[in-house]
Amino acid sequence: MMPSPGTTWQFVMCAQSAIREGLPLRKSDYDAYLAWSVDVFRLATTGVADQTQIHTHFCYSDFNEIFTAIKSLDADVITIENSKSDLKLLGALETHGYAAEIGPGLYDIHSPRVPSVAEMAARFAALQKYIPAENLWANPDCGLKTRGWPEVKESLQNLVAVAVAARSQYAAKN
Question: Which residues are catalytic?
Fold first, then answer.
């Protein structure tokens, strides 16, 4: 993965959404598969400049099984499905820790229901018990292609309101 000569990318996204789903049937083969997955990710992102922020995304997974591999990716930011898993990700964070930036999804994009600002703000506040505010991103669970434009627009407006309020609170504390 390389930008055109003379240019530098500010961000690059290298999705690893099926790393868990690709695990071998035999647990005895897990370590080799996960090591291979990490190597492939690092190879794909090796050509970017040091100042390029590397992002990756994980969909619905049991993160406790693969969290050590996720940490080994050395991505700058990971976004992870979180809303439908009843915050199971938080158990992985407690067990394994995570020092990079992370965006646990604040709402389920597969539902046509538009989450309120209050609902997403409460979820964002709960996440700050496990993730330092300076490392926490506000984002939906996954891509928005399954939703119609009116609900996407309203949901994202509410999400942006949460992010703006969180930044103001963080700035006031620091």
Answer: 110
User: Is the full-model pTM beyond 0.70?
Assistant: yes
Per-residue model confidence as pLDDT tens digits over 24-83: 999 999 999 999 999 999 998 888 888 999 999 887 667 778 888 989 998 999 998 887
Closest CA to 33 of 54, 18, 47: 18
